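Thread amino acids onto this structure.
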């Protein structure tokens, strides 16, 4: 549990730059941002670190397939992560890149300390090597690679090893004593049983590629990418630096309060990392808290499965929905940033409330809309607008009668206590659910008292009851808004201002959002200007988002393609865990028979018309001629091909694909294209010889 007297240093995993960010990445970052905002608001000296993991074979290969140098490749993808976080107003204090000089310097320093302390030795091992994957795999001699099915070779490689086996007992003691807190319990148990099953020494250098940090004194080797990556948590705050200011920063923030990680990388954070730290004579982080996976159509959202949802889609679509509602309410040119931050809040709330924190949870656009409408449009937003409109009619926040609406008062006090506790125990879904429950209680009180009716009555007692109910609801809303602040910083700022309380950021800085107690709202307070907060969303918005994903190249998610891309820990030939990295191209799809292939009817066609589709930046509407018929196809290539340049061009289409509607238009087939580079940019397939229209590809 975080100790409120200590500094609060929170980290996200650093993201691999072999893939563009998707909402699985945003999930970890959002959770970290919620915690950082909350702990700042509690007055703790908070430091929030995120960044990118840029070395290793996987990145080197991705760069090769994109035909650009790895540094340039990493620069581009790292910038795309960072600009997304900026677009969402993620309040990271530092952004570390493993290609930063400060990091490389710190990692080499760490290596030297480990070597000086006698924890590193040079040895060699022999094992089955998959040349295609450039990785040792745990299979018998002559057996195929479990990743790609190609035959493996027996190879001997010289490596540096870390004496992990020497830390087995210390790690068990660390975890059992609670000095290293691991959450959830299931992960803690898994980690403990992994350690108890016997730790082998760990290979911590590679010689088969060079995109990494050279081993001090032996540059033939590069440092194992996980040793390199894990060290970001200390190099970012000054470890290894000669600058006294950096050294002071390290003393101030280390050990970290919490490393937030995805469940598949807990072993790296709960076994290797604490062992490296102990070996270097450094304190171990206080806790590791794991989130589950966001699933899309039952499998983990990941680039290699092609089932990712991009955060940008949600920001664009929900942002546009919000701005349209402001226009309707009379605002002439709503700010784009306002839309982005509104949408970011919606996603933040959804992920916390809907996905049980620590477990896997399904993401779908429908669920996003349903939860948004239920909890934010009809729940919180509706409550704010009902209460504030009535108060606006009265001119100011009314004076309540002495005896207030006791149930709401009590429920609020209880919720404040349970939300504080839930947050401090990283039970984030519980915190969000408790707040939603309080909103429902206040709503229920209003419906039963019906102040809008009482206000029409000539009786003073009725008007007094209405005033009391409205004060109670407004005060509960003030407290609810304070509780929601870390989850939805942007929209709660609006509610706060509408309540006549000024800037919520100022209130957070001045400690007014902590130690919440009933009665802080002063009767007589004048409200701020009212405006819609959470406009109701139609189901069509889900379809719009789904279309946007399809047209941006987010291939239709397949539930059959379930090859894991989680960072695995297969044992190397001698049984120890070895780094396995897959290439940039997605793994091969499961094998099919010739009959399966024969079902796909690929034909040559000519583009006879092409045009952009209004409001769909990525889609082109094509008319193609197959020789025996003409038809309409929508293709997600607008960002890469000008419509005029396509007319007359021969393309290959999947001619027997079931029709599909996008943006209200029917697409009858699919244009075949290769997908290249980090963006998956499309390159249309074609022939160098002239081939007649309608010819079938077999
Ligand atoms: N580079 C390593 C981490 C090094 S930390 C010293 C790595 N990178 S990653 O980009 O593959 O994953 C980063 C984080 O994103 C992980 O915590 C991972 O769990 C999270 N997610 C990636 N896809 C996800 C989902 N579909 N759902 C939830 N989180 C997922 O691992």
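Threaded sequence (698 positions):
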């Amino acid at each position: 549990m975080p100790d409120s007297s200590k500094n609060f240093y929170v980290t996200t995993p650093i993201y691999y730059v072999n893939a563009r960010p998707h909402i699985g990445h945003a999930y970890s970052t959002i959770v970290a941002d919620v915690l950082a905002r909350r702990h700042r608001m509690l007055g703790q000296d908070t430091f929030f670190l995120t960044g990118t993991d840029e070395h290793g074979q996987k990145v080197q290969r991705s760069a090769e397939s994109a035909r650009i140098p790895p540094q340039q490749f990493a620069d581009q993808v790292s910038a795309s992560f960072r600009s997304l976080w900026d677009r969402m107003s993620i309040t990271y204090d530092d952004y570390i890149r493993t290609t930063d000089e400060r990091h490389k310097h710190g990692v080499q320093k760490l290596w030297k300390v480990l070597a000086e302390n006698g924890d590193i030795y040079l040895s060699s091992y022999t094992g089955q090597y998959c040349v295609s994957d450039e990785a040792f795999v745990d299979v018998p001699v002559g057996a195929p690679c479990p990743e790609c099915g190609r035959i493996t070779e027996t190879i001997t490689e010289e490596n540096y090893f870390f004496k992990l086996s020497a830390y087995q007992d210390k790690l068990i003691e660390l975890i059992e004593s609670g000095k290293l807190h691991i959450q959830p319990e299931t992960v803690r148990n898994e980690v403990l049983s992994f350690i108890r099953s016997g730790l082998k020494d760990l290979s911590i250098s590679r010689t088969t590629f060079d995109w990494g940090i050279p081993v001090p004194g032996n540059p033939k080797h590069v440092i194992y990418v996980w040793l390199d990556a894990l060290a970001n948590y200390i190099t970012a705050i000054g470890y290894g630096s000669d600058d006294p200011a950096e050294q002071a920063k390290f003393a101030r923030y280390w050990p970290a309060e919490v490393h937030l990680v995805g469940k598949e990388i807990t072993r790296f954070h709960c076994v290797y990392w604490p062992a490296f730290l102990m070996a270097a004579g450094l304190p171990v982080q206080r806790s590791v808290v794991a989130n589950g996976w966001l699933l899309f159509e039952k499998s983990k959202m990941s680039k290699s499965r092609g089932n990712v949802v991009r955060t940008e889609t949600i920001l664009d679509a929900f942002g546009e929905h919000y701005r349209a509602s402001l226009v309707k309410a009379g605002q002439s040119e709503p700010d784009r940033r306002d839309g982005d931050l509104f949408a970011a809040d919606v996603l933040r709330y959804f992920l916390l409330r809907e996905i049980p924190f620590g477990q896997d949870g399904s993401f779908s656009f429908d669920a996003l809309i349903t939860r948004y409408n239920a909890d934010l449009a009809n729940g919180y937003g509706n409550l704010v607008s009902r209460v504030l409109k009535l108060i606006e009619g009265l001119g100011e926040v009314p004076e309540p009668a002495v005896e207030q609406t006791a149930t709401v008062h009590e429920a609020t006090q209880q919720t404040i206590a349970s939300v504080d506790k839930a947050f401090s125990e990283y039970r984030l879904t519980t915190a969000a659910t408790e707040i939603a429950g309080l909103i429902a209680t206040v709503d229920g009180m209003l419906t039963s008292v019906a102040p809008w009716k009482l206000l029409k009555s000539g009786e003073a007692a009725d008007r007094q009851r209405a005033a009391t109910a409205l004060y109670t609801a407004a005060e509960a809303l003030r407290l609810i808004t304070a509780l929601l602040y870390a989850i939805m910083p942007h929209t709660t700022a609006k509610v706060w201002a509408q309540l006549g309380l000024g800037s919520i950021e100022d209130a957070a800085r001045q400690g007014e959002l902590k130690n919440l107690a009933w009665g802080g709202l002063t009767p007589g307070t004048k409200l701020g200007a009212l405006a819609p907060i959470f406009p109701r969303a139609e189901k069509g918005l889900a379809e719009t988002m789904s279309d946007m994903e399809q047209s941006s190249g987010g291939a239709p998610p397949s539930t059959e393609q379930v090859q894991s891309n989680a960072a695995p820990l297969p044992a190397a030939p001698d049984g120890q865990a070895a780094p396995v990295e897959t290439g940039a191209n997605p793994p091969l799809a499961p094998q099919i028979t010739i009959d399966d292939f024969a079902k796909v009817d690929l034909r040559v066609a000519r583009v006879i018309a092409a045009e952009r589709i209004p409001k769909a930046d990525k889609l082109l509407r094509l008319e193609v001629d197959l020789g025996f018929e003409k038809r309409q196809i929508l293709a997600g290539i607008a960002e890469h091909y000008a419509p005029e340049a396509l007319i007359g061009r021969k393309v290959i289409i999947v001619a027997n694909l079931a029709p599909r509607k996008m943006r209200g238009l029917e697409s009858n087939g699919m244009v075949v294209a290769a997908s290249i580079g980090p963006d998956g940019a499309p390159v249309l397939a074609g022939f160098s010889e002239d081939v007649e229209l309608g010819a079938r590809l077999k």
